[in-house]
Amino acid sequence: MNILVIGSGGREYALAWKISQSPKTEKLFIAPGNAGTSSLGTNIPMDVNDFKTIKEIVVTNDIDLVVVGPEAPLVNGITDFFKQDGYLKDIMIVGPEKAGAKLEGSKDFAKNFMAKHKIPTAAYRTFDKNRLEEGYKFIDNLKAPYVLKADGLAAGKGVVILEDSDEAKKELKSMVEELKFGDASSKVVIEEFLDGIELSVFIMTDGDNYVILPEAKDYKRIGEGDTGPNTGGMGSVSPVPFADEEFMQKIKDRIIDPTVQGLKNDGINYQGFIFFGLINVEDEPYVIEYNCRMGDPETESVIPRIKSDFVDLLVATATKNLDKQSVEIDERYSTAVMLVSKGYPGKYEKGKLISGLDRVKDCIVFHAGTTIDIETGGIKTSGGRVLAVSALGDTLEEALEKAYENADIIEFDGKYYRKDIGFDLK
Ligand code: AMP
Ligand code: GLY
């Protein structure tokens, strides 16, 4: 089978890495991909939101299965585009239609969906510029800290948490009136602050059935001890020790089942990944957010723990056959440590030569922001998050030790990584 993975980050490298190991994979394409994916398959440069070009790629390369990595093309309707096209409608695609991707594309939609289907989440209300005064009153009636969320996609930056109610009001005004996050903040969800420890839970669903993938915890802040600005994610760990059988059962009964059933009841055909961003508040799970894709860097610790043939799971997702599948999971701990460019998540330089990739051992290096230097053939940095160094171990400590040994071996000018991934789980 010929397979196309859309995207260019560590998540897409991890998906492509796993897909490349399946005997069912004949030709693998990654569009646009990165320096690492070019050794797993064929990279095709393109914009992930350019559906016409994606169609050309599918036709030209006789693609049978398309896996959509990032949220933007899903929210923009890539799957609807496939379903409505005479040729593409027969091609398997993993990723929800626009209506389902709204779980990530609109916080207001996601909150309404949870309220309707009685899925535990923080109390909330949504405001726009015509209801500013009501928003101020709502803030006055909430306890600090105040959580303000831009309704639409804001590249992971649309959530602001403030301690002071006057600042929260100012922030609300700047979001809805001055469109601080562009159109994404023309509506703002204000919600109750939940105090707990977060985890990420993933399923693949065909709209009727689902399988649960290994859960993970990611480390979003740039600084050690979870300090400083939010990033795309600085590392991840799987499994999450506090997500024991009893806790996972609560997640299944109260969150996963009603979500899958709710989508179905609402007439939304969802075939793809659902990423549940959850928080554990005194042993009770609540939904912080939904994403319509896998997490990054969670994928880089989750994928190494999946023993099953991943292409079988993807095909079953796209063809409504997941009831015939199960996921075999490696019991070991898996970690991913992100090596990032100096300055990230703010301004950073690109084009730094990466060395040491040939000296790593007993780990998997998932490429994210890397590119091949045309003149020298060397590998250079091309993004904020450059490489995820992942390792497996019988204990969390062993997995971390291996990941960190190798993180030290890889060098590039300005390399930075958090040295405390998993610190709160030990
Ligand atoms: P989101 O983009 O919705 O995942 O929010 C980004 C981050 O803000 C989350 O990972 C949490 O750390 C934090 N956050 C969001 N909503 C809440 C909430 N209701 N209570 C506490 N923290 C939250
Ligand atoms: N690691 C969080 C995310 O992918 O959104």
Notes on the structure:
The structure is a single chain. The chain has 426 residues and is α+β, with helices and mostly antiparallel strands. The protein folds into 4 domains: 2-83, Rossmann fold (3-Layer(aba) Sandwich); 123-192, 2-Layer Sandwich (Dna Ligase, domain 1); 197-324, 2-Layer Sandwich (D-amino Acid Aminotransferase, Chain A, domain 1), CATH 3.30.470; 333-409, Phosphoribosylglycinamide synthetase, C-terminal domain (Glycinamide Ribonucleotide Synthetase, Chain A, domain 4), CATH 3.90.600. It is 28% helix and 25% strand. Bound molecules: adenosine monophosphate (AMP) and glycine (GLY). Glycine binds at residues 218, 233, 291, 295-296, 298.
In short:
This protein has 426 residues and is of the alpha+beta class. 28% of the residues lie in helices and 25% in strands.
Question: How would you describe this structure in keywords?
Answer:
single chain, 426 residues, alpha+beta, Rossmann fold, Dna Ligase, domain 1, D-amino Acid Aminotransferase, Chain A, domain 1, 4 domains, 5-stranded antiparallel beta sheet, 12 helices, 22 strands, 28% helix, globular, binds adenosine monophosphate
